[in-house]
Structures are given as C-alpha cells and as structure tokens.
Amino acid sequence: MSVNKVILLGNVGRDPEVRYLDTGVAVATFPLATSDRAYTLANGTQVPERTEWHNLVLWRGLAETAEKYVHKGDKLYVEGKIRTRSYDDQTGAKRYVTEIFVDNMEMLSARSAVPGTAPQAGMPGQTGAPVQSTQSQVTPAQNNPTDDLPF
Fold first, then answer.
1. What are residue 28's DSSP bridge partners?
2. How far apart are CA 87 and CA 124, in angstroms?
3. What is the pLDDT confidence band of residue 110, given thresholds at 50, 70 and 90?
4. What is the largest distance, in Å, between two alpha-carbon atoms of the chain?
5. Which parts of the chain are beta strand (E)?
6. Distance in angstroms (rounded) separating the CA atoms of residues 86 and 97
7. Residue 122 backbone zone (phi > 0: left; psi -120 to 50: alpha; other: beta)
8. Quick one: residue 57, left, alpha or beta (phi over 0 = left, psi -120 to 50 = alpha)?
9. Other C-beta atoms lying within 10 Å of the C-beta of residue 137
C-alpha cells in the first residue's frame, strides 16, 4: 500500500493561467507559496523565514472555478497529489518539474461582489467555501449524522 497526499495552506503567487484543451477540458496552473516563520535558536542564531513555491495544476470544474474566483494574494487550502514530470528544454537538457495535482480546494480569502460589501452566503470565494472535484469524498460525519463530537 502507498499514499500520495499533499495538504497545503498558502497564498496564490499569480493569477491562474487557464487553457482549454481541444476537447473543451479546462486546465489551470498557478503557484502557491507556503512559508515557515522566522525563529531564533537557543544559542541566539536567527533562522530567517523560508518560503516554498508549489506549482498547482487544476482540471475541469476546479480549473473553471479558479479562473473565475482565484486571484494573486488569495489564501487557499488545497489537497492533492504530487506528480513529477520531465521534458527536454531547447538545449536538449532534461528538466524535471514537480507539480501538485489538486483534488480539493477551499478558498479562504473573503471576496465580495461589490467592493465594500460582505460576501453573500453560498457565493464561491466566501471564507471557507469548499470547492471539490467531481470525485466527492464522504466524511465520517456524513456517515453518521447523529454523531455530534467536535472532532
């Protein structure tokens, strides 16, 4: 048995770049930044903040949602899989790219339809609005609706 699962919470580094394949399927790509805070070791050594950049790839409905509602600077929670691919650049050298193929996404930045107004209930982009792929997952709470445990 093996597991390939990634969970990221970070900020969008660039507006999504969306393209449509000949079959009409949407594909969105954009970077997501995650940062570890700066800290000081017991001996006084200062360790600076470290930012990692992740290349996200979204397909179909998630890509279309990202095209409409995701913008540079937005905070996102994503779940997906790590995929690595290779290609030959113009010089013939082999290059490797590691990408996160997103299965689920939650937009955590508040968005409003009109500047200065609060987001309306049920609008994508509202704080905590989940957006999932067509491969919906059933959570344990959905299996037993009488279970009111807070965890």
1. 18, 58
2. 36
3. confident
4. 62
5. 6-12, 17-20, 26-36, 39-40, 46-47, 50-59, 75-88, 94-107, 129-132
6. 6
7. left
8. beta
9. 10
Domains and CATH numbers, the chain: 6-143 (2.40.50.140)
Judged on CB neighbours under 10 Å (0-12, 13-18, 19+), 98 is exposed
Q: List pLDDT tens digits, range 61-94.
A: 999 999 999 999 999 999 999 999 999 999 999 9
Measured CA to CA in angstroms, residue 87 lies from 84, 107, 127 at distances of 10, 32, 38
Question: CA-CA distance, 130 to 89, in Å (whole number)?
Answer: 38
Predicted confidence (pLDDT) per residue in 113-133, tens digit: 444 444 444 444 444 455 555
20-45 pLDDT per residue, tens: 999 999 999 999 999 999 999 999 99
What's the pLDDT at 104? 97
CA-based nearest residue to 71, from 28, 104, 34, 118: 28
